[in-house]
Amino acid sequence: MKKTALLIIDVQAFMFSESNPVYNGDKLLHNINQLITKARATNTPIFYIQHSEEGSPLEYGTPGWEIQADIAPSEKDIIIHKETPDSFFKTNLLDELNKLDICHLVMAGIQTEMCVDTTTRSAFGKGYEVTLITDAHSTWNSEGLTAEQIIHHHNQTLRWMANIKTADEINF
Fold first, then answer.
1. How many separate domains does the chain show?
2. How many CA atoms, within 13 angstroms, populate the side-chain half-sphere of residue 72?
3. Which domain does 92 fall in, by range?
4. Domain for residue 171, yes or no?
5. One digit per residue, pLDDT tens: the chain, 172 residues?
6. What is the pTM of this model?
């Protein structure tokens, strides 16, 4: 049986600020919590990816940088810090996955068209089997597209590199 891990990308406090909350944030948190519950019930490793950017609300150590409290990691979960959209680039993610012989990654998180997309493509390029949870990633409206359109577009585009499932459909 393939060893699987859940990757929760950049679900940090700032993303839920009242001034500019991520699209469908409550549903996103509900679905990610559903994935966490399923993963913990089967002892599936959970990786939290945490983005930092100096001089921004996601600056390392600031309140906005913290992992969103509703999905807080447990002591046995692994936290990976990154500074680019690719969760593998200049991080220890690959080493940590290799230590656990992980070959299948289940993706959830923020921001659909940046870090979720880039990490999904990078994982595929590294030979991982990838499953993208279609209702467990989100973003914001852009100048030309709504968040819903961006999410739909990426779910369709990334199906060439990832299995596409909803949170209800996934089993670990």
1. 1
2. 5
3. 4-165
4. no
5. 679 999 999 999 999 988 889 999 999 999 999 999 999 999 999 999 999 999 999 999 999 999 999 999 999 999 999 999 999 999 999 999 999 999 999 999 999 999 999 999 999 999 999 999 999 999 999 999 999 999 999 999 999 999 999 999 999 9
6. 0.96
